[in-house]
Amino acid sequence: MSKVNNILLAGVGGQGILLASEVLSEVMLMAGLDVKKNEIHGMSQRGGSVVSHVRYGDKVYSSIIPEGEVDILFSFEMLETCRYLPLMRENGQVIINNWKIAPPSVALGKQAYPVDLAETIRQQFPNTKVVDGLDLALEAGNSKTVNTVLLGALSNILEFDHELWLRALKKMLPERLLDINLKAFDLGCRVR
Question: Within 10 A of 94 (CB to CB), how many other CB atoms are there?
Fold first, then answer.
């Protein structure tokens, strides 16, 4: 049986997680792999949790990643990263956007946003990369390109040809948004 690789995308509604999972899946399809994707986005339009499971390999039978089998946690928000750490495989990789969005309990002053989350995550998963996605998106020229910056950072650890990423972005994005997103992707690719 061939190995199935598992990437879990997590974040908050409005961060572009679903587009990122579409681009990621398209790259894998273009590489000739079997891909299954599943999304959970209940209250996403109101800042709720959004999760997308992406599984790929020679043959994939289920779109849901079993608990304990996430190879890469690709997270767009710090606290959401912590929520999904229990699903990780031992020695899994974590890519985190260094962005903090206060949940309602924090915004209402009922709880404090946890401190030193990146360090806490690194203690459990040493192979963690923190990306300043918003800073790079602003450098690209648009704060809404954070998801594309993060895809660039993810492309550094996945073994897919750079040209496939560019082709997928060109296919999935409207032409009017393509140039700025290609710039954002390039900036993300420079994150090591």
Answer: 24
Cβ(150)–Cβ(20) below 8 Å: yes
Q: Which residues pair with 96 in a beta bridge?
A: 75, 130
pTM of the model: 0.92
CATH for 4-189 (2.60.40.150, 3.30.450.40, 1.10.3720.10, 3.40.920.10): 3.40.920.10
Task: Round to whole Å and give the CA distance between 47 and 106.
Answer: 13
Q: What is the pLDDT of residues 144-179, one digit of tens each?
A: 999 999 999 999 999 899 999 999 999 999 999 999
Q: Do residues 61 and 81 touch, judged by C-beta distance below 8 A?
A: no
Which residue from 13, 10, 33 is spatially nearest to 21, judged by alpha carbons?
Answer: 10
Residue 24 CA to residue 47 CA, distance in Å, equals: 23
d(CA 97, CA 71): 17
Q: DSSP class of residue 87? A: G
Residues of the chain scoring pLDDT < 70 = 1-2, 41-47
Domain spans of the chain?
Answer: 4-189
